[in-house]
Design goal:
The protein has one domain (13-57). Helices cover 28% and strands 7% of the residues. The protein is built from three helices and two strands; from the N terminus they run αββαα. It has helices spanning 13-16, 37-43, 53-57, and strands at 22-23, 26-27. The protein is extended and about 40 Å long. One of its GO terms (molecular function) is 1-phosphatidylinositol-3-kinase activity.
């Protein structure tokens, strides 16, 4: 999906719908959601210490 500013926006609905990727019958993803530092950076709009990130991590 492209936003008005031509930014790419992607939601992997497979995670929300519990369609897990498998290889040789083994789930590749063993946790429901992975929050990486890159995601935090994008969500926080480049701020180093987002205000409520610690609450979310707990």
């Amino acid at each position: 999906m492209l936003l008005i500013l031509f930014q790419v926006f992607h939601i992997d609905f497979g995670h929300f719908l519990n369609h897990k990727k498998k290889k040789f019958g083994i789930n590749r993803e063993r946790v429901p959601f992975v929050l990486t530092e890159d995601f935090v950076y994008v969500i926080a709009k480049g701020r180093d210490q987002p205000q409520k990130s610690d609450e979310f991590k707990e």
